[in-house]
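Internal tracking record. Fields below are filled automatically when a chain is submitted to the structure queue. Please do not edit lines marked as system-generated. If the sequence contains nonstandard residues, flag them in the REMARKS field before resubmitting.
Queue: standard
Priority: normal
Entity type: single polypeptide chain
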Amino acid sequence: MAIIHLDSRSFAKLTAQSEKAVLVDFWASWCGPCQKLTEELEKLAAAYPDLVIGKISVEDRENVQLATSLGIDAIPALFFYRNGKLEKRLVGYMTSEQLAAQLGL
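SYSTEM-GENERATED OUTPUT FOLLOWS
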């Protein structure tokens, strides 16, 4: 499945209603580790087609408010949801293999 770009409204809808597992990456264009992580997320998406992967730019003011409400103080920040519930929160760059292991995929 392709990586989708989210905003605060689509984030809330996706994480609450998806029957599939959802991984959301909070990132910024100026963040080097975020740029590297994008390649790893693409590999993860190819390896796990049932996993929904979304990205939210914290450079958008509306999304900054969402990130603040979630307690994000470092990026890349990854939030993993199953059945509408936050299951895991990760921070920093990881390879697709490390992500799969951390998320129990």
